[in-house]
Design a protein that fits this description.
By secondary structure, this protein is mainly alpha-helical. The protein has one domain (8-104). 43% of the residues lie in helices and 0% in strands. It has five helices and no strands. It has helices at residues 24-39, 46-52, 56-61, 68-77, 91-98. The two termini are 33 Å apart. The model has no long low-confidence stretch (mean pLDDT 87).
Length: 110
């Protein structure tokens, strides 16, 4: 973590990551990078939570509906629930529909 609270480890594709995140699009890119990392098991530092607490406008303008981490941040901060992207169907679910077995009764648990 830098003194500004930016975790540069989420910028492996850049030789020189941004020194500051002023523009909403730059902040949205950073939110996406952090959420993608968390979605794959790398939990953000406390400083990232502190930084994002004041970024609700970015979260609202650039929703990441497929990211569990994005929804976790919103929940953590007590912000309104954002629309979630529908889950993808598995091959088994498509076959069940074709055979008219109905939806998977456990799907709501996911």
């Amino acid at each position: 973590m830098t003194p500004r609270g930016i975790d540069y480890s989420v910028y492996p594709d850049m030789d020189e990551p941004p020194a500051e995140l002023v523009e909403p699009a730059d902040r949205a890119d950073y939110v996406h990078r952090v959420c993608a990392s968390w979605d794959f098991g790398i939990v953000p530092d406390r400083e990232t939570f502190d930084l994002f607490r004041g970024w609700r406008e970015v979260f609202d303008l650039y929703p990441i509906t497929t990211s569990p981490a994005y929804h976790a941040f919103r929940s953590w901060f007590g912000w309104p629930v954002a629309e979630k992207a529908p889950l993808l169907d598995t091959q088994a679910e498509r076959l069940d529909r074709r055979e008219r077995r109905g939806p998977d009764p456990c799907r709501g648990m996911v």
